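notes to self, project folder thing:

trying the whole complex as one job this time. last attempt i did each chain seperately and stitching them together was a nightmare. two parts in total, labels are on each line so i dont mix them up again. if this works i'll redo the older ones the same way
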Amino acid sequence: MLRLETRTAPARWLSFAVPVFAALLALLLAAIPLLSAGVSPLQAYRVMLSGAFGSQFAATEVVARATPLILTGLAAAVAFRARLFNIGAEGQLYAGALAAVAVGSGLIDGPAVLMIPLVCLAGALAGAALMLGPTLMKVKLGADEVVTTLLLNFVVALFVQMMIEGPMKDPMSMGWPQSEPILSSAVLPNLIERTRVHAGLIIAVGAALLAEIVMRRTVLGFRIRAVGHNPAAARFAGMSVTRTMLVVGALSGALAGLAGVGEVAGLKGYLTNDLSPGYGYAGIVVAMLAGLSPLGVIASALFVAAVFVGADSMSRALTVSSYIANLIVALSLLSVLLSSVLLRFRLRWEGKPA
Amino acid sequence: MTANPHTPVLELRGISKRFGALQANDDIDLVLGRGEVLALLGENGAGKTTLMNILFGHYAADSGSVWVADRAGVLQPLPSANPAAALQAGIGMVHQHFALADKLSALENITLGTESLWRLSRGDRSARTKLDGLMRRSGLLVDLDSPISRLSVGERQRVEILKALYRDARILVLDEPTAVLTPQESASLFETLRALTADGLSVILISHKLDEILAASDRVAVLRHGRKAGEVSTRESTKAALAQMMVGRSVPSPARTPREPGAPVLELVGVSVESPTVRRRLDDVSLQVRSGEIVGIAGVSGNGQSALADLLSGLLTPKHGSLLLGQKPITRFDPGLFVQSGIGRVPEDRHHEGAVGAMTVAENTVLENLSEPRFQRWGFLRKARIDAHARNAIHDFDIRCPGPHAPIRQLSGGNMQKVILARALDREPQLVLANQPTRGLDVGAVADVHRRLIAARDRGAGVVLVSEDLDEILALADRVTVIFRARLSEAMPAEGLDRQALGLLMAGQAREAA
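result (full assembly):
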């Protein structure tokens, strides 16, 4: 009989092995639909790999796509640590982008050293503000934040639609629903010529480093972990669960908001309703793959970005739908959940009792 | 009917069960005779619960077998891991926490599950006749039509026993039956057990209270570390001998020297806390605790102890009345402020409120002192200082753990409690609140906790000891007060205090009436 046994002390190497195992398992499972589409999985993955890392351009494209994923991944990782399940990073991303456009497309102008921080601040504040309601409703009324944050995504999406078709619509857009462009002084500069890698990457990596330090080395990080693991004990010890939750919610929303700023001020230049192909949702997978470790988020964001970029070129080369990328990402989330069982338990074969 | 204690009705033969590295039961043999009360004695973790779960078919034993006498008195093997078969064979159990539906009547609770769902009318009349007979023979009297919510804890326990008897149990297992009873209710339960065993019922009494085992059982089987450490006839045994058999060594009782108390460190004046349930309510409670004394709060569980403890922990704000700490009135009820003003608190439930299981021993030792400059600077943790602090605590309190960086959930209950004590007593608080500080701990750990509380008192702290264990209160407290239905009795000197009188107060009868 196969039995699960609780591990008393999960080995350290396992926490590194689990995400790798989960990623491989996801690729293995995705071979089934590839086979049914009449494509050799080995060839498909070879094409994917060269599509993601085969050229300098491909590799920089992976980095560009990883930039918002790092930030939304951090948004989820920080919040999930406190057991605040923010599923609303997609909405907060759009809120951040909207605020960046509102501030940076002509409301005020100044030198770049002023405009860039201002646009970032506006986006972060908008994302943070969006988390205020769900967090308060959770701690004061017990409303499930999974529901409230998820539903706010649709509210924000419709609000953005309304704004870019109405008050914020660019009169020069020839009827397309898009906002006025970000002023050149507020644009995040490119890091590498002729690629899509922009200064948002520095913000994202810096945020990951900062989050790692906060979590490990500060009183705030200590409180976040304590409240996440056992709110009753945290309250008994004199920590304010409400205040900690509000801070975590604000940080999480701000990180997702920054992802929106990067996309609008670093890449696209103006806001449309297809700014994000679901970076907010993919951030949840990124965070889970990283085991909620802020530094790990960088690696897992690169993996997820590579899957997306690689699947694009695979679908062009082999005429397989690029939705396979979404499938692989979804499968890796399921694999992570499955393999985290292995972190906590040990599988054991047992003979029949005599 | 003749009760012959030598006719076996139940035999456990060579039962072994292993969970991972833990050998929970190791080759245990047990024989229960007809009409006999067998006490199963052992510390927490000795394997009592595992053994009973195997008997009931909740677990499959790794090896060994269970034999139960059939109607003709012939022992038959009980199929392993089959709870329905155990019920069918006449094994009944009364758990420590009752499984009764509050809104249903006693009768409905007793017959629940014994009738086919397809029957149109309930067989109330035949059930009543059968129960009347049972109640008359056993003396287990309850109002069958009263909803459970109106019954006292003792009456609820009677309903649970009747439930088992109604299902024709011939072997009754009682798990810590007196944990929720006053001394008088316990005595009456034991009388009932006598009547039932005279009628042919066999009883297994699980307990770690030596007094009641000596009072109520015919034979005692002692488990230790999963093995049977011994089996004796109750008549030929003594409390000290049983304790030694249970622990494996002799246990010293805490040494207390009389001490003159000093100035008041805590005063409650007419404090009320409102709540729809008694356990979370306080009615006009007044209490004074002086420096250098232990005040014991005795009482049956659920009479307002948690409200009192939460109030003294800073978790509850009173509706009326005032709380003075070292003569200064407290206006803000906040756990963090309470810690800073010098209250050391040991919570009732160490897993729920006392410790963050996933965090390390070191992190748990500073959980409530985190904002002090010695552990943080500009919001950054001073890890080296925290680790040094934890190493000191581990050394001073003799905490057995792999090290300061081990998650605290890996520690045994006793060692986890030592971490919490180390944290609560760290800054020599002038007031110590210990709420059920030894619940679920083994004898050695209990002695450690008691020593720490007495040391705090001797150093001049006032200690509030909330406990449902009367023996613990009488062993430690200088003064005793009883909590009943959210009210506190007058505090009495513990010296020469009469258990019977305390028991009556715990049951809600005034002293004069005794």
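what i see at first glance: Residues 7-345 of chain A form a domain with the ABC transporter involved in vitamin B12 uptake, BtuC fold (CATH 1.10.3470).
need to look closer tmrw
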